[in-house]
UniProtKB/TrEMBL annotation:
It comes from Flexivirga oryzae. Pfam families: Hexapep. Gene3D superfamilies: Hexapeptide repeat proteins. SUPFAM superfamilies: Trimeric LpxA-like enzymes (SSF51161). This is Acetyltransferase-like isoleucine patch superfamily enzyme.
Length: 275
């Protein structure tokens, strides 16, 4: 096992770091096994990054990001696994990312992590069915769409795809796929609002210090309506909001009602088509 700081590197086992930027002690890469590749953009800015290649034939890629943004993570890359962090991804504190057993974690451009986030394509240890001996918790790939915002403490688990422009609320655990441009909250995370867009300017630090309307910010390219074709199973219908404390009808509730109506319409349309 060797741990090396960020700089061009190659060893006798075929492990290598592909990088043309300045050396950085803030990035530490550990190689066990062989034929692992860390491909890091010359303009990747990181405050603190640890990449552990646990076995062989793993790939880690990190795209470019502005210095003021910065990315920080603790990454595990297992046998034949890939972790890809695309351009412009930011993290307030270290994100824990794990991929093993040949799966991929793909984090879309301009994704924003808060603090205490985890993206786990595997559970770290195997669980088996005692009757059959079959593994019940196989590692599964994760795809996080561009311009996703993962709120404080939120966790994304294996098999999940998140559509572009979506917001995951604080302390939420995403166990099922989510469509684009929604807010999803809770554990498991469910959609509570559709047709939303979020922007990066900080509420406290960026003028104007009151931002009551989108005219106060520069709109990104991620302003889209939520895809109505996205499988209705992932909308609140699958986890009825009756488990939540009841409140007077709010905008959020109206969105939930709308999402449920949408789910019903999709189901009827599908029944008509198949019936
Ligand atoms: C999700 C969030 C962005 C707000 O979204 P919102 O649409 O304004 O949310 P609302 O307050 O209207 O709540 C909508 C519903 O979701 C629920 N909800 C909101 N946030 C929730 C959360 N994190 N976990 C569980 N439920 C939550 C509300 O109780 C409400 O449910 P109800 O209508 O059944 O009562 C916000 O709640 C949040 O999590 N903020 C944290 C952001 C963060 O982590 N910032 C760190 C800096 S990057």
């Amino acid at each position: 096992m060797k741990t090396v700081p960020l700089a061009p590197y190659e060893d006798d086992e075929g492990n290598r770091i592909e990088y043309t930027g300045p050396p950085s002690e803030a990035v530490q890469i550990t190689f066990r096994g062989r034929d692992n590749v860390a491909r890091i953009h010359a303009d990747a800015h990181t405050r603190s990054l640890q990449v552990d290649f646990n076995a062989s034939n793993g790939t880690f890629e990190l795209g470019a990001n502005p210095k003021r943004r910065g990315f920080a993570a603790q990454v595990r890359v297992g046998q034949d696994a890939t972790v890809r962090v695309r351009d412009g991804v930011s993290a307030t504190a270290k994100v824990v990312i794990s991929a093993v057993e040949g799966v991929t974690v793909d984090i879309g451009e301009d994704t924003m992590f808060a603090s205490q986030n985890q993206v786990r394509a595997d559970d770290g240890h195997p669980i088996f069915d005692v009757r059959t001996g079959e593994r019940i918790n196989l590692a599964r790939s994760i795809h996080i769409g561009a311009h996703t915002w993962l709120g404080w403490g939120s966790i994304v688990l294996g098999g999940v795809e998140i559509g572009e422009g979506t917001v995951v609320g604080a302390n939420s655990i995403v166990t099922r796929s989510l469509p684009n441009n929604v807010i999803a909250v809770g554990s498991p995370a469910v959609v509570v609002r559709t047709d939303i867009a979020w922007e990066r300017p900080h509420l406290g630090l960026t003028e104007p210090f009151y931002k009551p309307h989108s005219s106060t910010v520069k709109k990104s390219k991620y302003w889209r309506r939520t895809d109505p074709e996205f499988s209705a199973d992932h909308l609140v219908e699958a986890h009825p909001p009756t488990v939540r404390p009841q409140r007077p009808v709010s905008t959020a509730r109206r969105s939930v009602t709308r999402a449920r109506r949408l789910a019903g319409r999709l189901r009827n349309a599908l029944a008509d088509r198949t019936g």
